[in-house]
Amino acid sequence: MKKALSIAGSDCSGGAGIQADLKTFSAHGIFGMTAVTSVVAENTFTVVDIQDISPDNIKKQIDCVFDDIVPDAVKIGMLSCRETMLAVAERLRHWKAANIVIDPVMYAKNGAALMEPSAIDTLIAEIVPLSDVITPNIPEAEEIAKLPINSLEDMKQAAIKIHGMGCRAVVVKGGHMDGDAIDILYDGESFYQFPAKRVDTKHTHGTGCTFSAAIAANLALGLATEEAVRKAKDYTLGAIAHAPGLGKGHGPTNHFWLSSAKT
């Protein structure tokens, strides 16, 4: 069985963070493990409180995983501050982790900040170069690339700039654009587009977590980057389309929709 590690925050309402990652790993037949970076008290419409885990404890969580059940892929989500980023980067370099997928989580679906603005420089210097794939949405790509994004061409220019920061591939997600949801993958040589009709729903809590975890799962299964991204997008769109309609705000998706579709 293939294994994957999620290094991310905990969402007590179950739709995002490590909870979404574990469900996504399971849906792909992957054994999932976690290193919790922050405990977030949140639900589908608000973030109430955030408590960061100490860098020393985060390091020990990562070490315990790699010292015993070595992951075939690593998904990184919420890293709220510089100290957390430095701790994660140090241990992943030590263990020579492979197939690292980074979702540079900066904001919750309701707009609440999940990353200190002062930590973006550390993200660029320490975390981005570790990634085999990084998956910023448009606001995150604008922050990282320091470029305004208003078109597909702007997305491509941001992807080029982010790739130049040391990652192997960049997926700029187009969900914040009007019209069809078009994601752009750039691997340093070629661009690939992944268009999809927009699903008319408010139930999109944790979609970024789910998408990046699905890419990590597919890489762990041995898929090439383009195919891993393509399958992850199809999976995430299905999870959105089959959302169970839970919560008062932006509800969670259905991570096990494929199993439901087969019954």
List descriptors.
six-stranded mixed sheet, alpha/beta, UDP-N-acetylmuramoyl-L-alanine:D-glutamate ligase
Q: Pairing-aware structural class of the strands and helices?
A: alpha/beta
CATH superfamily: Ribokinase
Output the radius of gyration: 17 Å
Low-confidence stretches: none
What is the succession of H and E elements?
A: EHEEHEHEHEHHEEEHHH
Overall, the morphology is globular
Assembly category: single chain
What topology emerges from the helices and strands here?
Elements lengths: L2 E9 L5 H11 L3 E12 L4 E6 L2 H12 L6 E4 L5 H14 L4 E3 L17 H8 L5 E2 L3 H8 L6 H12 L6 E3 L10 E4 L4 E4 L12 H14 L4 H17 L15 H6 L1
Provide a brief overview of the structure.
The chain has 263 residues and is α/β, with parallel strands linked by helices.
Description:
- Helices cover 39% and strands 18% of the residues.
- The chain has one domain (3-252): 3-Layer(aba) Sandwich (UDP-N-acetylmuramoyl-L-alanine:D-glutamate ligase).
- Strand 8 and strand 9 form a beta hairpin.
- The protein is globular and about 45 Å long.
- With 263 residues, the chain is an alpha/beta fold.
- The chain has helices at residues 17-27, 55-66, 82-95, 120-127, 138-145, 152-163, 207-220, 225-241, 257-262; strands at residues 3-11, 31-42, 47-52, 73-76, 100-102, 133-134, 170-172, 183-186, 191-194.
